[in-house]
Write a structure and sequence with these properties.
mainly beta, 6-stranded antiparallel sheet, disordered N terminus, two-stranded antiparallel ribbon
Amino acid sequence: MPVRTLRRNREGRPPAMQVYHTSRFGLIDPQWPEDYAGVAEVVCTSIEDAYRLTNSIDRAWWENPGVEMLETSPLIQTAPDGTKGFRSTSVGDVVVDLDGEVHRCDDFGWTNLGEEEEATP
């Protein structure tokens, strides 16, 4: 499964945080970056906002302003009515902030996993 699936060229667009979901949802200790795939880019200023905006609360999260769902992600799901989408961001998932720092969502707060390595083509 490709790990780096988010677009890196954002010319003319505001900077965005990157959200990755683990392909091993519900399992203990997914490994970054091997067990992850990109699901969204989110224009926001904090990892907490990226988390909130990629949770379906009042509507599907990919309909939230400032959120761009990655429709080519290998983790996309298809509902019985044919609509496509993702589960909400949850414990074990990752947000890469505007400085390239990788943060894993924990039961309470976040764990900083360090800087993201550059994507390879």
